[in-house]
Amino acid sequence: MQKRFLVLLTVTLTLGLLQPIATAAPKPGTACKKAGLTSTSAGIKYTCVKSGKKLVWDKGVAVKKPAPVPSANPSPSITPTPSPAQKEESFTPWATSFTQKQVSDEAQKKFREWALAQPDKSGLHKFISQPDTPGKRTRNFKKVDELDVKLFGQFFTKQSTTVLGSNEKWVVDQLNANDGKYKQCDSNSGNQGLNYCLDQGASQGYVITSDQDYQASNPGGDGSALLSHEYFHIVQRALLGSNIGIPTRSDANGSKDSFPVWFVEGTANFVGFSVAALALDATYWEGRPTMFQYAPRTPDTNRNTLEDYEIRNGPGNNSPTYPYIAGQLASEYLVASVGFQKMLDIWLDFKNTKSFEKSFENAVGISKDAFYLKFEAARGNLGLPPVTWKLVCLTNTLISELPKTTPPCNYNNNNNASNPGEPTSPIRVITGDIVATGSLQARATWNVTGHESYRLYVTDVVDFQKVYFETGYVNDSRNPLVIDIKGLVCKKEFRTMTEFFTEKNGKGEILVMPSFQLRD
Ligand SMILES: [Zn+2]
């Protein structure tokens, strides 16, 4: 099964949480609040010192450049960063010619300006940690969590909760005591000594069994950016103002109005790394080359057009394409061009339009198609390799090997995703997802009402006749429904179909749900 490749971070700081914002570029000689405070901006580290009776910023010292990323395993998927000799000028919105540093810095500038302008409405949040949880992660996760809530707590109408602990059962109990619906907390994103869990509510949990500090040059290593990434999924749901989950595209037509997965995951990646860098007094830029190596090393990685990263149609993060990196770069490009609030406005506007494309155009001022054209014209400068693959139905294909005629695509989709939250069937599926629970197994959890029986089966993504697992018809009207899936095959992608019936033994009206996302 595909695992997530997202990574994260940590750094020791004694600054107040918003210090990195408030003092982003201190002027030497101007007043500062407390002796010993430091602030780094544009490679210069300033320290707050006493000058007579006043506290002022000193002239600053140049900070050592971050160590270059080891090149032993250069990523096949991203071009090298431009040489430092290249002149850095400012980024023009929707430019198609620029350096990676220009677009990245502009996106960060816009994000940090937005962050500085937000009201602090953190009141509705609980942060709970078990006393013996490893210290560096606890400290850094807490800082990131606090900044998340300070920035995005304003969008919540109910309490959100973050739980850290060293013991899984303790974490699950705390989450459930705060409105969670968890049985376990054991998802892993490739972070050593760190598992996490996230339900469809407003809480998330972390089980920390070993310690690691945040490293600006490897900002996915420790898990603090993961915390912010997952928190932003909770924010996305809050921005939608509903409990339907995030309607995500699962086929080429029926879910046309839903969110492209590149946008769901790309914005979460962008926010995760941006918030962690800000909370932990680092820059996004110094971690950026490494961020884009957190991807599967498959020949097609990052080599499709952005449009091919719209669909998520199976368990795993690479089903059918890996959307995280193209999505994060598209988010950078978007934020650099129109600002951070407009990215949030797309989510907020969806309530009114029930259409991603309409809300995109309303918020951003250009159509999604126009954005795609600009993105593809800019992709080389963003750091992406040329497009050499194309998604054919659910199969990624080398462009040089495309079939002469495209077969009709059988997505077998009947999930009413084009009209999210407005069911036409007496069966109502509120949330659902399928997560890997270990090697060759997964668990589907459906929040569903109105059914008397169900059937779930797992097939090959191309050959639907090849069935790896099947429950048969099961008479079970419970909500939630938890179904364990076993017998999967290593290194395969799967399509999971769940059918719900209004009567026992697979009779009556049927509602078919194709595989929902593996959540992250
Ligand atoms: Zn995610």
Order of helices and strands: HEEEEHEHEHEEHHHHHHHEEEEEEEEEE
Tell me the fraction of residues in β-strands, as a range: 15-25%
Largest sheet: 5 strands, antiparallel
> What is the chains' assembly state?
single chain
In DSSP terms, counting alpha (H) and pi (I) runs of 4 or more, how many helices? 11
Overall mean pLDDT: 82
Tell me the domain tally.
Answer: 2
The radius of gyration is 23 Å
Helix content: 25-40%
The span between the termini is 13 Å
Shape: globular
Could you give the count of β-strands? Answer: 18
The unreliable regions are 1-24, 64-77, 413-424, 516-520
Structural class: alpha+beta
Bound molecules: zinc ion
Protein model, in words:
Strands 13, 14, 15, 17 and 18 form a 5-stranded antiparallel beta sheet that branches. Strands 1, 2, 3 and 4 form a 4-stranded antiparallel beta sheet that branches. Helices cover 28% and strands 19% of the residues. Residues 1-24, 64-77, 413-424 and 516-520 have low confidence and may be disordered. The two termini are 13 Å apart. Helix 3 (135-152) packs across helix 6. The chain has 2 domains: 1-119 and 220-410, no CATH class; 428-514, Immunoglobulin-like. It has 520 residues and is an alpha+beta fold. Bound molecules: zinc ion (ZN). Zinc ion binds at residues 229, 233, 265, 268, 520. The site of zinc ion has 5 residues, from helix 5 and helix 6.
